[in-house]
Amino acid sequence: MTDKANYFNINKETWNKKVATHAQSAMYDLEAFKSGQNSLMSYELNALGDVTGKSMLHLQCHFGQDTLSWSRLGAKTLGIDFSDKAIALAKQLNEELSLDADFFCCNVLDTSKHVSKKFDIVFTSYGVIGWLPNLKPWAQMIAERLKPGGIFYMVEFHPILWMFDYSNGTPEMKYHYNQKEVIYEEYKGTYADQNSEMISKEYGWNHGLSEVINALVTSGLKIEYLNEYDESPYNIFPNLIKTQSGMYKIKNQLHPSIFEVKATQS
């Protein structure tokens, strides 16, 4: 087994364990979601607008709340994730809520091996690219899965945030912005429930903005925009304060928290 295959397997084990914890967490608030609450945030809703009747491929969808939220808004969605337990719960929710989303379990980099359809939209969000060692095959797969004129949209935590080690509660700058070497972390809990007893074992990679943009451009996509924002919709980093908009930021913040990219297939 190669090192990367081993990294993926260990990450998959951790994400399989996270499913039960996250499904019970206040952050994911599954009961409110079942009652009709939309899990999508303002960044992606504003960027993609009316998705009625559009086909959408959702990459790294976890247990499908966002995939199902897009389905509720009228899109025909397919969610992809490498966690079999996450996909099982996503399918269960789809059936329970009488929606028509589809889900498939595979490593996101292998999507084109299993999915031949082309989509109007490819979407991915929040904590996704850090699990990938190389963004070129990821971007190539995205280009393969888009129809001519199709849209790729991603919203993601800013790479500056991943330069810090948060294990001691106080952020400590430790990793290079464009670090090529794999980063291993082992800690108790998860971002959705820091008091959980589960042990997270994770391998990840840092990707600067230039790597993201160049991978997409090299794949043939046309970049429509790159935006950076100070405010995050998720309270998952230490010492964040809630803003008037209901989002979160660091007190006296000196760097962005979120970036978004929109691109089109020629």
Can you walk through the features of this model?
One of its GO terms (biological process) is methylation. It is a single chain. The chain is an alpha/beta fold and 266 residues long. The chain has one domain: Rossmann fold (3-Layer(aba) Sandwich), CATH 3.40.50.150. It is built from eight helices and 13 strands. The strands form four sheets. It has a seven-stranded mixed sheet with strand order 3-2-1-4-5-13-10, with helices on both faces. A two-stranded antiparallel ribbon has the order 6-7. A two-stranded antiparallel sheet has the order 8-9. The chain is globular and about 45 Å long.
Keywords, please?
266 residues; alpha/beta; Rossmann fold; two-stranded antiparallel sheet; 8 helices; 13 strands; globular; methyltransferase; Methyltransf_12; methyltransferase activity; SAM-dependent_MTases_sf
SSE layout and pairings?
Blueprint: H1 3-23, H2 30-34, H3 42-48, E1 55-59, H4 65-72, E2 76-81, H5 84-96, E3 102-105, H6 111-114, E4 119-125, H7 135-145, E5 146-157, E6 164-165, E7 172-173, E8 183-188, E9 199-204, H8 209-218, E10 221-229, E11 240-242, E12 248-250, E13 258-265
Parallel strand pairs: 1-2, 1-4, 2-3, 4-5
Antiparallel strand pairs: 5-13, 6-7, 8-9, 10-13, 11-12
Helix pairs in contact: 1-5, 7-8
